[in-house]
Amino acid sequence: MAGGKSGTVRRNPAAEAEDEIEAILRAALTPDVSLGAVLKFVHEGAGVVVIDGTKKPNEVHRRDVPADCTVHVDPLLNLAIFQRHADQGTAFRQGKIRIVGDVSVVASLRPIMLRQSNATEDGFRE
Questions:
Q1: Which of the residues 10, 23, 38, 80 has an alpha carbon 20 to 30 A from that of 118?
Q2: How many other CB atoms are there within 10 angstroms of residue 96's CB atom?
Q3: What is d(CA 124, CA 60) in angstroms, rounded to the nearest whole number?
């Protein structure tokens, strides 16, 4: 095969980023925290990751459902933000993030993510 090893399957980097984002959110959204709303991350060309904070405990899934707040962002940038390799404020000011709906929903995720990163040694991952 030209350009690669036979039998090697390469995944889409955006899909891999979504897998990691979903795992990070599941780890951070412990049963004692609740967003109280639905937050959707739309990753253009890849898919969605949704936090349904109206359920107890929060539910993280990839079904495209209506949300109280929708964040449009590249999945690789979103992963970098969750891993604290990129600053969400800077990305927003540069127009790399677009938020539709109740901005307070996405703002309420930040302290949850910071609490998780302070509880672990390597960013938002357990």
A1: 38
A2: 16
A3: 16
Q: Which residue has the tokens 């253009």?
A: 44
In contact, 49 and 81? CB cutoff 8 Å: no
Report CA Rg, the chain.
Answer: 15
| Amino acid identity at 58 | N
* Residue 100's pLDDT band (cuts 50, 70, 90): very high
> Residue 87 corresponds to which amino acid?
D
Among residues 92, 96, 100, 22, the alpha carbon closest in space to that of 66 is found at 100
pLDDT in tens, 45-57: 889 999 999 998 9
d(CA 76, CA 126): 19
Q: Which two tokens stand for residue 63?
A: 């079904």
42: which strand partners?
48, 72
